[in-house]
Amino acid sequence: MPLYQLNETFWFPPVTDTMEDGLLAIGGDLQIPRLLKAYKNGIFPWYEGNTPLWWCPDPRFVLFPNNLRISKSMRSILKKNIFEFRINTQFETVIQHCKSTKRVGQEGTWITDAMQQAYVQLHKDGWAISAETWINEQLVGGLYGIKMGKIFFGESMFSLISNASKFAFIHLVQALQKEGIVLIDCQVYTEHLESLGAAFIPRQLFIAYLKHNI
To answer: The pTM is what?
Structure first.
């Protein structure tokens, strides 16, 4: 398949035209209308440097809220009320932590300055939300993502102490389920999210969920 070059118009090629690794297009920018169109069609930006890369992998790694898996150790932590869960009280701090927190096996971060600014604007516009773990009035973990219709697109998470990101994720999934969210997009595989119940589904099925729930 050819690699598409985007221009100033907010257009994307069919997601079936991705390369084998899920890469669909290169270029364009992170203007809000383009980002919203991308997510609506199952496409997300993920890149280092200055040139956006747009992806729609097949299969897609997702979590159905009913499949949320909570380990015995996490159930014990939840019962102890060590942490406090909050939504949208420190979005900009959450994304800054996601950007700066060092990760095993990674030299840098894919959250560029342009990416950070774009998602802060998405938050101000009501599309992006943060889920936060607090202890003693200190933010110690969390995640952020995009909510469109009955779909939540997870973007990144961080943890400053053990289990803090898991705590935020579990509470967010439970809260989203009560709101009627039917699918949480995890985008690409991580062992961390697999332990919480995420699994692969065919891209065709994923796109069908988007069409019926956004």
So the answer is: 0.95
